[in-house]
Amino acid sequence: MNKFLQIAIDEAKKGLQEGGIPIGSALVRNGELIASGRNKRVQEQNPILHGEMDCLNNAGRIGSYKDTVIYSTLMPCYMCAGTIVQFKIPKVIVGESKTFPGAKEFMESHGVEVIDLENEECIQMMEDFIENNAELWNEDIGE
């Protein structure tokens, strides 16, 4: 298991324990963790506080993002993908895209390398959450 994906998974699990949506993220530079975060839309009543957004917010001002990698348990949505493109983050490593295809093609069309690990733990976590919380999940993805 990749240690940075594990950090993202741990963040996702914290979010679930808090009554939120289990999506976590980690930002890495030169093999060192800069920040991590989790989807806090429910916990903080903030519609844009997805896992990647919380992670980047927790990183604060770090100057350029051009030499970073962002990990996420789930393929980023268009909002998060837009932020990744805007900040010129060159690589995204995701746990899975089976439960939500997200904005992979959008990121790739803007030069972002996207790697989908098809991680079973990430898939199962989201499948269980979606099955048990369909209304909340649909709210999160704008359905």
Task: Please tell me about this protein's structure.
This protein has 143 residues and is of the alpha/beta class. Helix content is 41%, strand content 18%. Strands 2-1-3-4-5 form a 5-stranded mixed sheet. A hairpin with a 2-residue loop joins β1 (24-29) and β2 (32-38). The radius of gyration is 14 Å and the shape is globular. The termini are far apart.
Short recap of the structure:
The chain has 143 residues and is α/β, with parallel strands linked by helices. It has helices spanning 3-17, 51-59, 78-86, 104-109, 120-132, 134-140; strands at 24-29, 32-38, 68-72, 91-94, 113-116. The longest helix has 15 residues, at 3-17.
Secondary-structure topology with pairs:
Blueprint: H1 3-17, E1 24-29, E2 32-38, H2 51-59, E3 68-72, H3 78-86, E4 91-94, H4 104-109, E5 113-116, H5 120-132, H6 134-140
Helix pairs in contact: 5-6
Descriptive labels:
five-stranded mixed sheet, alpha/beta, 143 residues, 41% helix
Give the overall pLDDT as a whole number. 95
* Overall geometry: globular
**Biggest sheet architecture:** 5 strands, mixed
Name the helix and strand elements from N-terminus to C-terminus, one letter apiece. HEEHEHEHEHH
State the helix count: 6
Number of strands: 5
Structural class category: alpha/beta
Give the termini distance in whole angstroms: 33 Å
* Share of helix, binned: 40-55%
Radius of gyration, in angstroms, nearest whole number: 14 Å
